[in-house]
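User: Before I run my own analysis I want an independent prediction to cross-check against. Here's the chain; please return only the structure tokens and, at the end, one sentence I can use as a sanity check.
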Amino acid sequence: MDNNQPIIIKRVKKTAGGHHGGAWKIAFADFATAMMAFFLVMWLMSSATPEQKKLISGYFQDPIGFSESASPYVIDLGGTPTPSPEKTLNPEVQEHPVETDVAPIDAAQVETLSEQLERERLDLLLQELQNKVDENPELKRFKDQILFEITKDGLRIQIMDADNRPMFALGSAQLQPYFEDILLAMAETISAVPNKISVSGHTDAKPFAGRGDFGNWELSANRANAARRALVYGGYPDAQIARVVGYASSALFDRQNPLNPVNRRIDILVLTKRAQRSIEGEQPAGGEQPPQTPPPSSATPGSVSPVEGEPMQPRELREKLNIFESGVLGFDEPEG
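Assistant: Structure tokens:
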């Protein structure tokens, strides 16, 4: 039997609950903020002094110009900078700030500190010069003729003759090319510090064979001056040269052998401030004696006097030496 009854399909549409909205959260947050501000104001009012209440009131009455009877500070603690004392409500405010006791710095302490820092600066310069000699192939060939050492008067650089490598032409002040290269290479490094220098020339004990009015004294002075000209040509400031002098054979490097070629040398002394004052005729501090001709060194050519602390790398040394160019460590004379 055929069933012609229609088939009915019911589709149930499921819908979620309607959105209730979040406006109440914003209202509640505003209410909580207002209550916090209210209780904060109540706490401040209960803990503030009458003076502070008047200051706060004056501020809200005239925020820009403020009240004439009040301090420009909401809470005047009586410190510095002080407003007009006659207008402040704090009776303890003084017209002048209280000066704290500062212990005066002794001039001798300043001098001692300056000398310590200057010694450190010369130590750095010594290491930088030694690194320059080691790094430059041309200079390294003549390492055995260059001596660096720290003395009481400063950093002493001695460049001396060898049997087969004289610095000057025989009996004259004409520089040999290699010696001129050494001076030109050192001029830039030495000029990195503000200390002045002294240049001195020395000969051996062999009498000069030439004119009767020209001897080892004149020859040593002329050679020292020739070295000065080479340094200036290499960029060293001429105004930084404190003295150029010739010693002839009066200060031999090798006293046991007066004819030793090492006695023919050029000394470049990077002066300390104390030695510079003595040379320039200023009164030395503490009544010390002016620097004398440095005694012959016991070190051998090519050696270097020890420097305290671990040796620094060349790049680190150059970075530390750069601070001297800007004058930060100029070590001017301490004012008495």
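Sanity check: Residues 33-94 form one domain.
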